[in-house]
Amino acid sequence: MTERELDEKIAGQMGKVADRPHDADNTTEAEVQAIRDRIFVLEPGIVFIHEIPQQTPFTVEIERARLFELAAAFTEFILVIDLTKAARPTAEIRNEIGKIISAPGLAHTVVFTGKNILLNAAARFVFASVFGRGNFTLLKSCAEALSHAHQLRANLG
Q1: CATH of domain 3-154
Q2: Of 94, 107, 120, 127, whose CB count within 10 A is highest?
Q3: Torsion angle (degrees, nearest 10) of CA 91, 120, 86, 96
Q4: Contact of 41 with 66, CB cutoff 8 Å
C-alpha cells in the first residue's frame, strides 16, 4: 500500500467513529465495526492502527481483539500506530495499552504522532513505561514510520 492509498483509506474512515467516549451502552454495531476497521494489515508483516480520538477501556478491548485476530496470520509482525488524532491517554487507558501491545508475534511497534510536541512527550512516556527501553520507536511522520516499519520487517526471521 502506498502512502497515498493509506491516506485515502484513513480519509474514508474519518467521521465514522464519533469523537466522544465510547462504551457498551452508547456504541452502535456500526461504530464498533468502524473502530475495528481502523486496524488493518497494511501489507504482509505490518499491521496498522489508526487510533480513535478518545480511547476508553471499551475501545481498547475492541482494538485488542481485532489486533489479535489479525496477528494470528503472522509468526512475527511490526505494528504501526497513528496517534495524530488521538487525545492524550488517561492513567486508566495507559494501563490498558499493555493489552494491545501484548499480541503474540509482535516484534516491534512504530508510533507516529505528527508534530504535536505534547503528544510526543506523552507517547514516549506511555510506551517507555509499557515496553521499557526497547521494542518501540516514536517518530513524527507517517512516511518515517512506514519507512522504519519496512526496514524492521525486512529484518524479521
Answers
A1: 3.30.750.24
A2: 127
A3: -30
A4: no
Beta pairing partners, 108: 78
What residues does each domain of the chain span? 3-154
b/e per residue 99-117 (b: at least 16 CB within 10 A) = bbbebebbbbbbbbbeebe
pLDDT, tens only, 12-64: 665 578 888 899 999 999 999 999 999 999 999 999 999 999 999 999 999 99
Mean pLDDT of 113-130: 71
> What's the distance, CA 156 to chain centroid?
20
State which amino acid sits at residue 123: A
**pTM metric for this prediction:** 0.88
